[in-house]
Amino acid sequence: PATDTFCAVPNTQVLSNDPLPCDGVTVSEHEVTVGDVTTQYLAIRPSSGGTDSVVLALHYLGADTGRFSNVVRLSELAKARKVLVIAPQAPGLVQRWPSSPTIGEDVDSAVALLRGVLSDAKSRFSAGSDPVYALGLSNGAVMAYLFACRATDQVKSVLTVAGELGSAALDSCTPSRAIGTVIVHGSADTLTPYYGITSLYPPVPTIHATFKQFNGCTGTDSQVTLPN
User: What single string gives the DSSP state of each residue in the chain?
Assistant: First the structure.
C-alpha cells in the first residue's frame, strides 16, 4: 500500500462480523434481488469519492461479509488502491457459493445474482465504466473462477487464493476473451491439494496452463525457490 493507507485490524477484533472502521474509508450495506434470490452486499470505498476500478470480493465458506472484509483487509484495499470493493453475501443458510455445475448446485443462478450485484453497485456509485476484478478466497475462489468463465464480459481479471476448479467446470470454461489470472495456492495445501484429486479437480498448474492458453500466452514459465 501507499504511504498513509494502512488500516489497523487488531487481532482481537479481526473475526468481528462488522467491518472495522478505517479512516478515509466508507462502508455501506445494500440489498439486491435477482429472480427469487435476495442477498446483501458491502460496498467499501474511499471516503473522498471517485474510484478507478471495481473489485468483486467473494468470501470463503460460512463467512459473514464483515468478518471476511476484516480477514482480507478489504478496507485497506479500497483506501490504498482507490477502488470500489463489493463484497456480496452468498445466499442460503450455510453461506456457501456454488462450487460445481455437476452436483446439482445452481451456478447459473449465482452468476446472475453477481451480475445483479455489480449492476446495482456500478449504478449506485457511478462506476459504470470502471473495470471489474474478481477475487475469491477458498470457496469464494471457486466462484470467482466460475464467474470469470461464465461472465467474461464483466471481468477483466481474476485473483484466486486456495481454491480449486472442478474438472468438468474447467472443461466447460469458454471465456469469450482473455482473462488475466493471478493464482495463489500453497503446495502443501491438504484441503485442496496443489496437485489435484483424480476425477474431482485438476492440479493447479493445469488450471494455470488452461487460462494461459485462453489468453494466448506463449512464453515459457519460470520458477523460483523462496527461502524458508
Answer: --TT------TTTTT-SSPPP-TTEEEEEEEEEETTEEEEEEEEEETT---SEEEEEEPPTT--HHHHHHHHTHHHHHHHHTEEEEEEPPSTTTT-----TTTT--HHHHHHHHHHHHHHHHHHTT-TTS-EEEEEETHHHHHHHHHHHH-TTT-SEEEEES----HHHHHT---SS--EEEEE--TT-SSS-TT-BTTTB--HHHHHHHHHHHTT--SPP-------
pLDDT digits (tens, 9 = 90+) for 74-89: 999 999 999 999 999 9
Whole-number mean pLDDT of the chain? 92
Residues 162-178: what's their mean pLDDT?
A: 91
- Cβ distance 84 to 118 under 8 Å? no
Whole-model pTM: value is: 0.94
